[in-house]
Amino acid sequence: QVQLQESGPGLVKPSQTLSLTCTVSGDSISSDDYYWSWVRQHPGKGLEWIGYIFYSGSTYYNPSLASRVTMSVDTSKEQFSLKLSYVTDADTAFYFCARAVRGFTSGWYPREYDYWGQGILVTVSS
Amino acid sequence: EIVMTQSPSTLSLSPGERATLSCRASMSISSSYLAWYQQKPGQAPRLLIYRSSTRATGIPDRFSGRGSGTDFTLSISRLEPEDFAVYYCQQYGTSPHFGGGTKVEIK
Q1: A62–B100 C-beta distance less than 8 A
Q2: What is the pLDDT of residue A105?
């Protein structure tokens, strides 16, 4: 059974960098069939995609966050990570890691998110 | 950029009633390029429907999806107590945006 688990600090100071890791079990992160993704949710609000990464290291970020986002993957540890720099209180949210099925038409793209981590609340506060 | 708009924002219904949730895309998308999720308080979203109309593993057949172009619908034929939750649609593509959600609450 596929499981994803987020880990990282629950409290980050303004202007610092938020760093989270997602550990994948029950499946290989080095699969051609999936993207590994981050989605966040401000308390009481909707879902916002942050970005996704393929095991080769290729990434795609939400343009609204791209200047501050870096994602990476460590296939040896079955982990992928998110860094969000220069955080403000607007970055206080639940952060979910998720697996997205990979689709292809004229290019590769993420389809549905079929497995999710439980989510981690990250609060930005001094 | 495609914007996904869900309506209504809140749907107040009684157990046993039928729920019909709408998701509209700002421009036409492939009929199979849409997913639906259910989220309960304190939980991660759960995949319900993918490719617009295919139920995910373990999803009961009271859930159904349909649509094409810009208009998509999630229907719940007879609401069970555990179906009261928030539902999101999500378009496929290099920018996989979500709709704003519809809360299905007990009337």
Answers
A1: no
A2: 84
Q: How far, rounded to the nearest angstrom, does the alpha carbon of residue A1 sit from its chain's CA centroid?
A: 20
The two tokens of residue B76 are 């719940």
Give the mutation candidate from B88, B98, B103 for the A interface (greatest A CB count, under 10 A). Answer: B98
- Interface residue of A111, A114, A120 to substitute, partner B, most B CBs within 10 Å: A111
Please tell me the least confidently modeled range out of A67-71, A74-78, A104-108. A104-108
User: Distance between alpha carbon A80 and the CA centroid of its chain, in Å?
Assistant: 8
Residue-wise DSSP of chain B = ---EEEE-SEEEE-TTS-EEEEEEEEEEE-TT-EEEEEE-TTS--EEEEETTTEEPTT--TTEEEEEEEEEEEEEESS--GGG-SEEEEEE-SSS-PBP--EEEEE-
pLDDT (tens digit per residue) in B3-47: 999 999 999 999 999 999 999 999 998 878 999 999 999 999 999
Q: Check CB contact of B103 with chain A, cutoff 8 Å.
A: no
Percent of chain B with pLDDT over 70: 100
**Tokens 């609450």 belong to residue:** B105
Q: Which residues does chain A have within 8 Å of residue B99's beta carbon, measured at their own beta carbons?
A: 46
Are the CB atoms for B3 and B27 separated by under 8 Å? no
